[in-house]
């Protein structure tokens, strides 16, 4: 009798489990998924933060946390376009000299204090202050800011500057917290590590190692965030010394996600983690090229030599081998994601023609290729050396640590050929600093030492044009002229590789200007979910 009761109970349990399974599957079949509040995401980042402060942020670790804990008048969306955040709306004058911003009502800091126009005026004043040496200062030179009333701010420019909306993504800092801090003490105070912000997340706790460096930070959803409380309850950001350790901890489950990964790790992650990981390839506004210093190497003064160097490079092979396909070839100074890439006049891969052009030289071409000590750039340099050797060119490779590059290479322009990456930031990019003749000397970034009067005029004009269609035409003209002169061998634009758990929903990043912008729409992401029947749509 007892055995029959046990059997009955067992069958009842099996039937109940089956019934619940059927209900669950039916629920999924006839309902749609919606985000639910909760969950804990663990993200790995290289480096350690010093300045969780939008005015002072310098490193990737700084900028990642600033993106999570601060927001500006505008905030980038998933496509890399600035959209209103603290701002309710903005108006641009016809001459492009005035930007009138109307703030949203009921804005608050993460500590519950009210956020006002005075906080915006205070923040911009700090960004412009020469004593503070903010990395953002150059963006605000020549810009006047005026509080018209409690909800309205007017920005006045001396010259029209179409990319100015990008400036308004600068994170705002709280006046009531910072106004008592002397400028000389700004970089030193603990507020840089324990901030009060206005972003999607606020700081819950910080963990430090034995020498006081931050090794992890736990964040919690900010209920006062202007675009709505984030769906994910907590994010822990863990800091690492190198990418290899990040890849190891992704595989063993210590962390769930990591951005900016090298392509060499992706295949192993997919093999180890299978369907539990999602490798996202995101358009990045960055170009990799070999910049030719004609002042240092006389042979580069010949257009035939420059074209031959370009024609001897199989760019697709570079993308396939160096980036494992996570990127695209380019022919000019602007990434394809900015506009329909104009490759008019760009030479194709043709090793035989390259040899013929180089054979006209009095002596075999030889030069030193300088680059940074990063795995991708060193590997690319070696492949370029091999490709050019097939055209009869002798290349020596010289590498520098990233921390020494600015002082020893870029500043003094001490290179013959320089393999390097440039970030052409924004959906309204400003290539002025990279290609205008006035930027040939440091601190300008015209590292090809390029000078062309027509291009100078185009670069100046495109800054002031408000109409997007007209601006795209000028970008195309800039591209055509620079391709014609071939001051650099343009190679590829890499993708930003972001490993996330496959159950992370709401993440739909298409374009970013910098790695930290992967968090621009983090408030839409979710780990927890529930199902709502279609009749309630």
User: Structural class of the helix and strand makeup?
Assistant: alpha+beta
Give the C-alpha Rg. 27 Å
Proportion of helical residues: 25-40%
User: Main sheet, how many strands, which sense, barrel?
Assistant: 13 strands, mixed
What is the average of the pLDDT values? 91
The global form is globular
Q: Number of helical segments?
A: 16
Q: In percent, how much strand structure appears in the residues? A: 15-25%
According to DSSP, the number of beta strands is: 21
Identify the CATH class of the largest domain.
Alpha Beta
Any idea what the CATH superfamily of the largest domain is called? Dipeptide-binding Protein, Domain 3
- And the CATH topology of the largest domain? Dipeptide-binding Protein, domain 3
The CATH architecture designation of the largest domain is: Roll
Low-confidence stretches: none
